[in-house]
Every structure is written in structure tokens, then in C-alpha cells.
Amino acid sequence: MPKNSNLKSILIIGSGPIIIGQACEFDYSGTQALRSLREDGIETILINSNPATIMTDPSMADHVYLLPLTTKSLVKILKDHPQIDAVLPTMGGQTALNLCIEADEKGIWEDFGVEIIGVDIDAINITEDREQFRDLMTKIGVPMAPQATATSFLKGKEIAQDFGFPLCIRSSFTLGGAGAAIVYDEADFDELLSRGLEISPIHEVMIDKALLGWKEYELELLRDANDNVVIICSIENMDPMGIHTGDSITVAPAMTLSDRTFQKMRDMAIHMMRSIGDFAGGCNVQFAVSPDENEDIIAIEINPRVSRSSALASKATGYPIAKIAAKLALGYHLDELSNQITGSTSALFEPTLDYVIVKIPRWNFDKFEGSDRTLGLQMKAVGEVMGIGRSFQEAIHKATQSLEIKRNGLGADGKGYKNYDQIIDKLTNASWDRVFVIYDAIQMGIPLSRIHEITKIDMWFLKQYEELYAIEKEISTYTIDTIDKDLLLEAKQKGYGDRQIAHMLDCLESQVYNKREELGVKRVYKLVDTCAAEFKAQTPYYYSTFENDVETANGERFVDNESEVTDKKKIIVLGSGPNRIGQGIEFDYCCVHGILAASECGYETIMINCNPETVSTDFDTADKLYFEPVFWEHIYDIIKHEKPEGVIVQLGGQTALKLAEKLDRYGIKILGTSYQSLDLAEDRGSFSTLLKENNIPYPKFDTAETAEEALKVADELDFPILVRPSYVLGGQGMKIVINKQELEEHVVDLLRSIPNNKLLLDHYLDGAIEAEADAICDGENVYIIGIMEHIEPCGIHSGDSNATLPPFNLGDLVMEQIKDHTKKIALALNTVGLINIQFAVKDDKVYIIEANPRASRTVPFIAKAYGEPYVNYATKVMLGDKKVTDFDFKPHLDGYAIKQPVFSFNKFPNVNKQLGPEMKSTGESILFIESLKDDEFYDLYARRKMYLSK
Amino acid sequence: MKYKKRDKALILLADGTIFYGKSVGGKEGTSFGEICFNTGMTGYQEIFTDPSYYGQLMVTTNAHIGNYGANNEEVESDSIKIAGLICRNFSYEYSRVNADFSLEEFLNKHNLLAISDVDTRALVSYIRDNGAMNAVISTDVDNIEGLKKQLADVPNMNGLELASKVSTKEPYYFGNENATYKIAALDIGIKTNILRNFAERDAYIKVFPYNTSFEEMQAWSPDGYFLSNGPGDPEPLQEAQTLAKEVLERNLPLFGICLGHQVIALANGISTYKMHNGHRGINHPVKNLVTGNGEITSQNHGFAINREDTENHPDIEITHVHLNDDTVAGIKMKNKNCFSVQYHPEASPGPHDASYLFDQFMENIKNE
């Protein structure tokens, strides 16, 4: 039983829609917390406005409220549930903490007799109010950078004069470093100061002397009510001070710290945590270390809650931070809990790693035209990937292979930069590609000392790069026939993909694969176990590597593999990789439900994914987790190892779907809709033939591969024309053009950024209404799970439109056409599983824009709005376990549910905020309204044509 | 940087199992010892120079070893004490302003054989499942039969006295001679950081060889006595046990760490035993039963004191337990001014959570 037996009913606050700086890691932490509280028999009540989350599933909490994160909603919940004893606000990021503070200031918690657990308000205030924090640090003797607070423009100017440049400006009470900037000279100071003050809700900025080039570290801590503190993970930012940690490449464990300096840092972190109030839970502390002989340590900040870094630390170490933090909030002491990974040892310990993890952020600058792509104090990444390897080099290679930006790893793909000035510029102004440019710089022969001088990246990391390049050069002196086992093994141990080695040896990827098979250079799987194999572990959390041989006493030689294959029938679900605009948390929701459904059908479930922020990569979601890049070589090796019945590709968004063709080619069974049907839906020519045969209208269209062809097509179609590349999600590169000149410019642009792609040109139905339908089909029967109508007119990407479920003003005739078309198309495509179809409605006629036989962004929304487990049903259909007619569908919704997109434009002050066919929103929320007379709906409807700046 | 091809090397365990790897720095040779592993992610230099590791082949579980080089200062004794190093990735290149050498240079300076590129995880799992045993690391990969023969002659750690091999030959002093307190330390493998901890607490220390008698120590008229950490089996250390008994008979302040703790237990008739594979790392959880607090501690021991004997001993109280396996981590004598711990409050490497024990000893001296 929990130490505090007064806690019987607890409210958890979620983090709301996904925005830059606050992504699905809080779905992960919230989900863990809910499970953890449940284990202790506690009643859980959840508030979150984000429907695309696992945590808001009816099964996750006793009462789920999909309500806006406002104090008004809190009051409603507290009135409904007067039994609530406490609120746990540390699992929902800064959003939850801010709401908790607001409610506290309004006296709401006090009114309802609710205790705040897991943090105390004073602690939040101290850590967020930089002046108070600084005073406290001074008091306890923890050094900080010279720093001062400005609450006015004038005061800011004075401070700058005092400190000199460069300076950092940080806004108080903001997320993901919003409003933060480094100012190198006086000319830029005024503007950045004003912006910082504006962004801060309390009109306050901290100005500190910039510690550019200092090494940056983070420690993840847990503290219990008995004041025991443990360090779960040390994280080193490869990118030193000056780049927001959310935008930095980070490595765990810390790579370049001596024990002496590390222990000093550990002492400081513990001291800091103990100094900020009296709470039990998780905490993140950031430090800078001077890169000189002093190894001075300076505290940067402390976050008294579960953070993005603690999600990463959980995945990096295997230690379930949020789960344990929730238990600590209940009053448990660390020594009363067990390490869930080993099952036999204590939770009061510090994990040790015998591998390295590298996290690389995923940016989406292409979505923000005109944005400043330089990395700095303000976070700009929309997602992240993590690579696990037995060395830094292997881990960084796996992370780069996970990014899905058409690179195969570092170097060896002919895509590197070759221009000296360009390389120097890209080293100087760090952006999404600096991780690759360092390799290019070494390849070009730029001395490491120069690269270090520019980037301030620690020489150890640069030398790792240099060693990689030395291996590339060595391998290039061989051919596929002459390369020996030792060298090939070494290259694989360093993380080089078969494709990269093929590039070096000038042969085919499959030849390298065959050579590996022939020489016995086989991928093996190791366990993430928190303890470097000191104890036997219980959890099936694997990553791949390559190892040297072991030989038994009787002469049997083998490579040690920890992933034992069972004889159960099993399936693999391919995950959706890093979050990006157009492919976010929705697909993780789908993957997790796919796993759960397959498990219910008696399958052993295997998950492959590389996104550390997700629930799908939690070690207790699937029966087996392979934390690996969703990259052909890795997937194929896992499939060869596990020999599953089949692979589910339709739940993991475009990432998984893109691999369908190759899976099919290698004779691997795709569960559900076949590759041929997936391809048919994507191929406009065949798809339109299908529509024609079924008598279904579609806008005139054609395809083109050159600008010349596109111009010819335009003569046939009439402007406006919608131009887009095929096989993309989230409308990447999609644009509406109104004349030949625009068309030519856009086509040339597209072919340059996405070469060898077929372009689709549609006649754009101006002024049409857009609608979409999601359905489940078993090949014979179709069940439409929901039809949504967009509030904005045709032309704004469906992901960026407000939409209602069910439609608010489509007539019976139109609805009938939608239903009829949906059923016909689902059957004609031999869909087995989910399908999403987008429609344009003009003059009461329904046209097909596109059909995607896979889980869509709207499926989780519809499932939440109707309270039905559609992904579960669809997965059972894919597996052939159930027919559509086997389910008892009982959707329930009073009134309407509105899907509202959420944008993160405030991170990109100069960007074009106009909406169009390319998706720009980062998240969404759900709003339930009783009728169309609702003010919120009226507002949205009135503004629908404003192509507005959000 | 030029690509370097590394020569083959191997580890042969006493039971005949072989793990393949590569020789570090192209060095040739063969080295014997008992195989053990340390799970620390920092502090390799402190580990390699810790006299408690004398005669052991060290497997480091951290993925990389040598990243921050080595220096003359962060050492626990004047030389490398391990018998050989086994790691996954050896960093030939390092980065630290405060380093005096690369780790390769440091190992060469002390003529230590190291092998890398070994599946250390498989090796650790093997030791975990099969227990600590003797082993050999060698670059002589074509002479496995010869290595097997030589390995058979290596003595077993059980019953092995090693303190005499690492102890100082002559007494020496540490710290400020004008300090308020005087501590006599018996060196059965002492780590320098223990001395630093005493010196920081206003003590002047005289370090005595392993076989020093009580009378010799008493002649210096110290305020307190200390029994150090060290390698090997505590049982053969008869002189040290006698010394402990004499200090206890006179009820003088006594503190023991690790091997010293085992010696104190033996002096009280509590037996010791060789553990399956010991505790070696810097993340070991200990609970202080007196305060109820947890500590993350640095540990390095292959022997432990018998829990049942300790519980049944009328004059001894268990003050600390290891949270992972409930072994005894600390004891106190009920009617004597004496306590001892199995782990390393001096850290180095490792967390400083237990440094209060030094304060406690100083208090014991002051209250005497």
C-alpha cells in the first residue's frame, strides 16, 4: 500500500496538443503514470484536450475528460468528482504545471480540498522565476553564469551595457526556449529584447553572459519523500552551449566527463534538487562545463517535473522514470520499489549502460517557408530519433539512418557537400544538416582543430568522426570480392549500413548483404537492462549490434545473441519513426492499438520503432521491442531473425507504408491490404481507371515528370491546378498554382528537392467543401467509422483544417454519395483494414481527391469522439481474426466533435503563416459542442475563409 | 588519421571458454588473473590504480574506455594494479585539457596488457551465470593449449593473501603534520582518496605496512585506528586480525573499509566467504538502517562477511545492507568505538553519498 493512504483518487493533467517543445513524450509519461497509479488501486481522472493520445483512451483512466486545459474545465471535473484527493501536475509538461499554478492562484485546489503531489508550487515558481532561482543558487553556493533580470526595456539595455556581448536573452515562464536568443552585437539587441519581453507572460527576461562553447550536460534525477536522490542518466550534448538542448544532438551516458567532474556535478544536482522545496518525483538539471583546465561547472536550470529529457533518459536506460515518479508522488520510498527491468533488484540505484545512445532532433524547416533555419536558444525541432549502439559511432549512424531524410548514415552516399565555403558556412551556422556536414568537412580535409574552433564540439566526438572516415577510405581500397571478414565486421560495428558499404565497394546493397551472410558477419541483438548485464533482466527491450566470436570449451564458435525466438505465431508492427508535421502521435496511437489487438488475438507482438518519445517504444507495450531504425536493412534482419507470420504496415504512417514495396518484393507477407492495392491507390493512373470503372467522379488530373510535360498537362486541365509529388504525407511540396509561370516555378523547385518523383497535377475545385471518411473493410464488408466535414473551404490541407464530426451542413444526397463512394472504393481496392478517403463537394456532387488504404490522422480522433476502439477492430480484421460483421458498433456522440489544429508559428517569427495545401500544424485538440449554436463553432465558421494567420 | 588494423587477441577462461578480441596498441603478451567486471561509467583510471584490484583481469562494461585520457593526479596508488584490461571500445584518441597522457600511453607506462573489441556484454553475462574464475588474456592466439596449461597453475583467489603484495614496505605520512588528530592507518591495499578524506578532516595520517603490530602503531600515539581496503581473501590476514583485536580490547576508535571491514568481522569471530561474482561498480544501493536513508555507493569486493554470523553476534549491529542482495554492507560494535563498511565512502571513483562516514569516524575520535 502507498505510504500516504489518504490518496485514493488522483487527477492527472495532460499536456494538450503537440507543439514544438512539448511533443508526445508527455503522452508517454502520462500513460506510464496512469498505469503506475492504477497498480496501486488508485482511481484516476485525466484531463487532456489532445485526442490523438494513448493516455486519453477510455481504458487508461477511470474517467477521461477530453476538455480544453482551462481552470473552467478543472472546476467542472472537481464538481463531478468531489472525491479527488490530489492532483499530479508533473506529467503534462509546462502546460500542466502552468495550469496547476493558475488553479492554485485562483484558490481552486484549496476550494475543493485537493492536494498537489509530485511537486510544490513554490518549487515551480523558484525554478521558473530566474531571479529567485539565481538567489537560491547563490545561497546554496552553486555557481551560475553572470545574469540579471529585466522587466523593462530600459533595464535590459543597462544590463547589456554592464555585461558586454555576446549575451543570452531568455523569457521567463515559456516553453522550449521561446523568446530566447543569443545576441552577438548591439545592433540586434533591441529587437530581441522586445520580443523576449513580449513572449513572457510576466513580461520578464533573464539576460546572461553567453557561455558559448562550454560543454553542456543534463542529469535526470528522482527523489523520494525520504529525500533519497538517485541520478538515472547523464546526458551530454554534442552541440555545446548555444544550441537549445531540444535541438542538440545528445549522447548518453556522458562521453567526455572524468569521474571527478561528473561526481562534482552529481553532488551539485542533488544539492539543487534538495534545495527547491520538499517534493517527491522527477527532476532535470542542466549544467555547463568549461572546456579548459578548470572544468568549472555552472548550473543553467532545473525543471522539477518529468521532461522531454526524462522520456529520453527512460528509453536510454530502460528505467521507467515517469512510472516510478508517480509512485514516489504517492509517498513510496525508492528502496521500497523494485527495479522493474531486473525484477530482482532495488529501484534505489543508478542505471549503468554498456551501450551508447545518440538522440538527433528531427526538424521540418521545409514546412516553414522563410523561417530562420539556424539553430539557437529556441527549440525548433518537431521530433527526435534515438539510435542505440555498442559504440558512439554505431549509435550516431543508427540515429542518422532513423531520420528518414533520404540519408543512409554519415557519408558514403555521394550526397555530401563538396564546396569549401559552403561547408564552413554550414559548420558555423548550425542547422538540421550539421551532423552530416562535419563528415563532409573531414572528407574535404579541413583540420579537426578548425572544425572544433568553429563548432566548439568536443574533440572526442570529432575524432570519432575522423575514425569513421578513415574506415571508409580503407574499405574503398577493396572490392566486394577482396574485403575480408575483419574489416567488414569493423565497418558494421561502427554502424555503416550495407548501402553505405556498397557505395564504398562500388557494388549493390544486396551483394554486401550476401557477403555478410557468407562471412558470418551477422547482426545480433542485445538487451537494454539498466545494469550492464550484472543481473538477469526480465524485459524484452532489444537493439542490434555486431560482435566478435565466443567459443565454448568444446570448440563451438558463435556470436552471442540475446533475442531468443519463440515458437509462438508472431507479427511485427512497423512504427512511424520520428514525429514530423503530417505524421505525428496519431500513428503511434494506431501502432500501440495494433499491438494490443494482435496480442488479444493470441499473437506474440513485435514492435520496431526509433522514436524515444512514444508509448510504442515502452518496454511493456509489445511482447518484444526492437528499438531500431525503421530502415530497410534493420527491419529485414529482424524479420529474418523472428520469422513472423506477417508485418503490419498500415498503422505506422508513410514511414511504414513506404517499406511495403520492398517487403513484398522480398516475399514477406504484409498483413491486411496488399502491396498491390496500396500501390494502386497511390498510382493516379490506375486509381482513376478504377474510379472510372466504378462511376465515381474525380477532378481532372494528369501526371508529369518534367516541367515541359506539366505545362502540356496544364492546357488540358485549366487553372487553378493543384501540384504535388506522389508518395508524400502531410501535403509536402503541395501547392495550388494559378498560371503557367507559377506552375513552371513550382515544378522546377519540386524536381530539384525531390528528384525522380512523379508529379500529380489536379484541376483544383475552387470553392468546394472538403470532407473525409474513414472506414474499416474486410474485403467484403465496409463499415464507415466516421465522416468529417472541414470548416475551411477546399485548398487548406486536411490536417490544418478545423473539421466537425459528423458533418454540419452536408445534405442527405451528398452524404449518400460519400458513403456510396467510400464503400465502392474500399471494396474495389480489396482493402483489408483501414481506409481514408478525401472528398471535394461542389454543387452537390462529390469528387474523390484521394484514397489512402491505411490508418489516417483522423482515426484516433473519431475513435475518441465516438468512444469506440476502431484501430483494435481494424487490426483484428487485418489479421483475419474477425470480419467487419463480427463487431457490435455502438458509436456515441452527443452533438458534434470539432477537430482543431494547433500551430507552432511562434517559434518562427518571420515565417509565412498563410495556410494552404501543405500541412503546417503540429498538433490538434478536440472540442465537444452540443449544437451548432455553440459560440466556438460560430467563430470558426465565421472565420473560415480568412486563410488566416494563426 | 590513418586506419589501423589491430592484431587478434583472446581471453581464455579457466573452464575453457574463449572470447575473441583485438590487442590494444599492437602490444604482444599474456597476462593471468581472476576475471571480474566493473560497471562504472566513469573513473577507469581510479579503478585501474586501486590496489584492491591487484591480480584481477578487469572487464569494463562501459562502451568506451579512455575518452578523457589519463593524468598523474586522479590515481589511487602509484601504479596500475589490475592484471589486464578487457573492453569493448578502446579510445586511442582522448579529449581533456587536464589529461597528461592518452590511456594507451598510461597503460604502456605501466606495461599493462589490454584487449579490446570483445563482446564484453556476453562475457559479463557469462561471469554472472558461472561465477568469478581465473582467466588469461593473450595475443598468442595460436597457442591455446599452451595457455590452458599455464592457466591451470594460477592459484585460486579463495584463500589467497594479496595484501602483502600491495602494502607499503615502509611507513609514511600523509597530510598536515600540525593537524589536530592523528590516525594510524594499516595499509592492506589502501586507496589514496581515503587518506585525502582524512586529511581534509583535520587529520594527520601515518600509514603502516600490512604486518605492523599494535605496539608499533600505538607507539605513534594515534587518536584513531583505520584498517584499509585491499585485495584478496581476508582470512589469511592473521596479523591484521590480531591488530584489530588489540585495538578493540582497548576500545580505541576503529574504522574499517572493505577488506578492513572483513578483518574486523573476522576478529569478532564472524566468518567471511567468497561471493559468486562480487560487487564492483559505482551504482550500488545501500540502506543505512540507522537513519533509514539510501546511499548510492562505490563498491569493489569479491568477499563478504557472513550475514547469519553477524545477526547472531551479541555485540554487533548491522548498520547497512546492500539493497540488491541483502548482504551486510556495514556494522557497528554495540559497546565499542568501532564501525566498518563493506563499500567505499571515499568514492573515487563513484558518488560521495557515504562521505559522512569519515565525519562519523572523526566524531568518534573527538568523543573519545
Automatic annotation (TrEMBL), chain A:
Superkingdom, natural source: Bacteria
Gene Ontology MF term list: ATP binding; carbamoyl-phosphate synthase (ammonia) activity; carbamoyl-phosphate synthase (glutamine-hydrolyzing) activity; metal ion binding
Record's subunit section: Composed of two chains; the small (or glutamine) chain promotes the hydrolysis of glutamine to ammonia, which is used by the large (or ammonia) chain to synthesize carbamoyl phosphate. Tetramer of heterodimers (alpha,beta)4.
Family: Belongs to the CarB family.
Catalytic activity: hydrogencarbonate + L-glutamine + 2 ATP + H2O = carbamoyl phosphate + L-glutamate + 2 ADP + phosphate + 2 H(+); hydrogencarbonate + NH4(+) + 2 ATP = carbamoyl phosphate + 2 ADP + phosphate + 2 H(+)
Pfam family, one: CPSase_L_D3
Residue spans crossing the bilayer: none
Enzyme Commission number, as recorded: 6.3.5.5
Protein's UniProt name: Carbamoyl-phosphate synthase large subunit
Record domain ATP-grasp: where: 134-330, 688-879
Key words, A-Z: Amino-acid biosynthesis, Arginine biosynthesis, ATP-binding, Ligase, Magnesium, Manganese, Metal-binding, Nucleotide-binding, Pyrimidine biosynthesis, Repeat
From TrEMBL, chain B:
Residues the record lists as binding L-glutamine: 52, 230, 232, 259, 262, 300, 302-303
Entry-linked Pfam families: CPSase_sm_chain (PF00988), GATase (PF00117)
Active-site residues (renumbered): 258 (nucleophile), 344, 346
GO molecular function, one term: ATP binding
Superkingdom in the source lineage: Bacteria
UniProt-listed InterPro entries: Anth_synth/Amidotransfase, CarbamoylP_synth_ssu, CarbamoylP_synth_ssu_N, CarbP_synth_ssu_N_sf, Class_I_gatase-like, CPSase_GATase1, GATASE
Enzymatic class: ligase
One GO-annotated biological process of the protein: glutamine metabolic process
Gene3D superfamilies reported for this sequence: 3.40.50.880, Carbamoyl-phosphate synthase small subunit, N-terminal domain
Reactions catalysed: L-glutamine + H2O = L-glutamate + NH4(+); hydrogencarbonate + L-glutamine + 2 ATP + H2O = carbamoyl phosphate + L-glutamate + 2 ADP + phosphate + 2 H(+)
Region named CPSase: 1-181
Domain Carbamoyl-phosphate synthase small subunit N-terminal: 7-138
Entry-linked SMART domains: CPSase_sm_chain
EC number: 6.3.5.5
This protein's UniProt keywords: Amino-acid biosynthesis, Arginine biosynthesis, ATP-binding, Glutamine amidotransferase, Ligase, Nucleotide-binding, Pyrimidine biosynthesis
Pathway: Pyrimidine metabolism; UMP biosynthesis via de novo pathway; (S)-dihydroorotate from bicarbonate: step 1/3; Amino-acid biosynthesis; L-arginine biosynthesis; carbamoyl phosphate from bicarbonate: step 1/1
Task of the protein: Small subunit of the glutamine-dependent carbamoyl phosphate synthetase (CPSase). CPSase catalyzes the formation of carbamoyl phosphate from the ammonia moiety of glutamine, carbonate, and phosphate donated by ATP, constituting the first step of 2 biosynthetic pathways, one leading to arginine and/or urea and the other to pyrimidine nucleotides. The small subunit (glutamine amidotransferase) binds and cleaves glutamine to supply the large subunit with the substrate ammonia.
Assembly behavior: Composed of two chains; the small (or glutamine) chain promotes the hydrolysis of glutamine to ammonia, which is used by the large (or ammonia) chain to synthesize carbamoyl phosphate. Tetramer of heterodimers (alpha,beta)4.
Family: Belongs to the CarA family.
Protein name: Carbamoyl phosphate synthase small chain
Taxonomic placement: Bacteria, Pseudomonadati, Bacteroidota, Flavobacteriia, Flavobacteriales
